[in-house]
């Protein structure tokens, strides 16, 4: 979805060189690689990053369950990794994904379905059929 | 950039109803409303959210400087707010913006200019001229 120019010689990627918070986590934004829609934000630790890159299946760390969360493992709403990006400060990730079905647990395509307009919350989309 | 269907009666937005981390902050993803490009991720507190909505100029909380950060105030690379979104868990924000110039302090359009491909870090774009 974006023109790509390779500007430098590649260096080996080491997840330990990223900046994690005090819980060892880094935010990961998932973006639909076709529509460009921002689907969700969740957290990864170094091992989840390794699993994501190794398997091509986006894998987060669930803070509530304190376990790996292979996106779509139970729902079938998998995220196939298309590209893995790091920000300038190395403290945030962007994963471009091929999303099956809904990214949101409410069965909406994206988690960001509520807008604030004229001071009021407005729902932008219904759950998928 | 996305079809919008209003599904419910609007309710008044109150920033205190969002979920903040232990430092009183919530992550905010900035997306270019024209290209759909994810530009950056930074943090807001409740007051930064109020300022953003009141002024239409995206305002973060700088963790390093511990002060408000009106994006572009010194660089001129302002972010004009186009739409303000909340995720399902109310613990992450998405701001659609009209971005002047580079969003990244390295003078690149986006902070996410590094990709990991075949185990190597690869720069995708050069600083803007």
Strand order of the largest sheet of chain A: 3-2-7-6
Figure out the total of helices of chain A: 1
Major β-sheet profile of chain A: 4 strands, mixed
The counted number of beta strands of chain A is: 9
Looking at how many chains there are and whether they match, the oligomeric state comes to homodimer
Into how many domains do the coordinates of chain A divide? 1
Tell me which protein chains meet in the greatest interface and how many residues each side has.
A-B, 50 and 50 residues
Domain Phosphoribosyl-AMP cyclohydrolase (chains A, B): 40-113
Catalytic activity (chains A, B): 1-(5-phospho-beta-D-ribosyl)-5'-AMP + H2O = 1-(5-phospho-beta-D-ribosyl)-5-[(5-phospho-beta-D-ribosylamino)methylideneamino]imidazole-4-carboxamide
Cofactor (chains A, B): Mg(2+); Zn(2+)
Function (chains A, B): Catalyzes the hydrolysis of the adenine ring of phosphoribosyl-AMP.
Helices and strands in order:
The structure is a homodimer of 129-residue chains.
Chain A: E1 11-12, E2 26-32, E3 38-44, H1 46-55, E4 59-62, E5 67-70, E6 79-86, E7 93-99, E8 114-117, E9 120-123
Parallel strand pairs in A: 2-7
Antiparallel strand pairs in A: 2-3, 4-5, 6-7, 8-9
Molecular structure report:
Two copies of one chain form a homodimer. In chain A, 8% of the residues lie in helices and 36% in strands. With 129 residues, chain A is mainly β. Chain A is globular, with a radius of gyration of 16 Å. In chain A, strand 6 and strand 7 form a beta hairpin. Chain A has a single domain, classed as Phosphoribosyl-AMP cyclohydrolase (Ubiquitin-like (UB roll)), CATH 3.10.20.810. In chain A, the strands form three sheets. In chain A, strands 3-2-7-6 form a four-stranded mixed sheet. In chain A, strands 4-5 form a two-stranded antiparallel sheet. At the A-B interface, strand 1, strand 2, strand 3, strand 6 and strand 8 of A face strand 1, strand 2, strand 3, strand 6 and strand 8 of B.
